[in-house]
Specification:
Elements (H helix, E strand, L loop, with lengths): L4 E12 L2 E13 L3 E5 L6 H8 L8 E3 L2 E4 L2 E2 L5 H7 L4 E4 L3 H4 L6 H10 L6 H14 L5 H4 L9 H13 L5 E5 L7 H18 L2 E6 L2 H7 L2 E6 L2 E7 L9 H8 L23
Parallel strand pairs: 3-9, 3-10, 7-8, 8-9
Antiparallel strand pairs: 1-2, 1-4, 1-5, 5-6, 10-11
Helix pairs in contact: 4-5, 4-7, 5-7
Length: about 280
């Protein structure tokens, strides 16, 4: 399989009173047109990895890598203007907390349309039709009305679906989904993830799905990377996740509540088992 994205020794750091602290420590990965899941606790470096791919780590943060290439393009050598041409058109990222990612002074329709017209020249009628179609796809009823609303007028769950629509409408080659359904109820989560999965398969896109939910990632991904404290501590095929041997991954799996749960207390991670912090 030809690699669409190759990363070698990615490091992301931020200054503190006691010196720079690395939040991503030497991450390497190779991604084809497949579905890759990245899991781990909050603060493990998952989201920072996604942002670094798009070169969204701003000062005083710092990112560096021995190699970071997307479809033959050296991302580190790309100018900021060149990166803006890639962001959205070829690499899109669904951020967490969409209500804070949407522009509060633009209507929903204008924001989704902006993501499309920035990279494609289309007649206004066609742009409107594509926006309505995309809103329908993410299960938003009465899209003509929702297009005229502002972000503060929609719920958190609807805001998340609007953000998903905005990122998917340019039909990128790589979609980075950072907790894309965290504000949605379980039934809508499944619908939206099925939608993303369908689009990824139909368009031959690559997907990086960032999540805390191990079962969800195992269901929708082909491969999984497990991160802890900025490092990859495990990698496996999604179907083999339950066979993972690293103590941290085993601890995460053991802490997942089950419908048939009979234990009085969920286990906690024994970080001394692998020298973790």
């Amino acid at each position: 399989m030809t690699a669409l994205l190759e990363i070698e020794n990615l490091r992301v750091s931020f200054p503190t009173a006691s010196g720079r602290v690395e939040v991503v420590k030497g991450l390497s990965l190779s991604l084809g047109r497949e579905r890759l899941g990245i899991v781990g606790e909050s603060g493990s470096g998952k989201s920072m990895t996604g942002r670094a791919i798009l070169r969204l780590i701003r000062r005083p943060g710092r990112q560096q890598a021995d190699r970071m290439v997307f479809d033959g393009i050296d991302l580190q050598a790309r100018t900021e203007r060149g990166m803006r041409q890639l962001r959205g058109a070829r690499i899109s990222m669904i951020m967490q907390d969409p209500k804070f990612s949407l522009n509060p002074v633009m209507t929903v329709g204008d924001q989704i349309a902006e993501a499309l017209v920035t990279h494609e020249r289309l007649p206004r009628r066609d742009v409107r039709a594509r926006v309505i179609e995309m809103l329908h796809s993410v299960r938003i009823h009465d899209p003509e009305r929702v297009m005229d609303l502002y972000p503060h007028e929609v719920s958190g769950g609807m805001g998340q679906r609007i953000m998903i629509a905005m990122m998917l409408i340019p039909r990128p080659d790589l979609l980075i989904a950072d907790e894309p359904t965290s504000a949605l109820d379980v039934s809508v989560q499944a619908q939206v993830l099925d939608l993303i999965d369908e689009l990824v398969r139909e368009k031959g896109m690559a997907l990086i799905l960032i999540s805390h939910d191990l079962d969800l990632v195992a269901r929708y991904c082909d491969r999984i990377l497990v991160m802890h404290a900025g490092e990859v501590v495990g990698a496996c095929a999604a179907r083999d996740l339950h066979k993972a041997s690293h103590p941290y991954t085993r601890g995460l799996l053991a802490a997942v509540p089950r419908m048939e749960e009979t234990r009085e207390e969920l286990p906690v991670l024994d970080r001394s088992a692998w020298g973790g912090t």
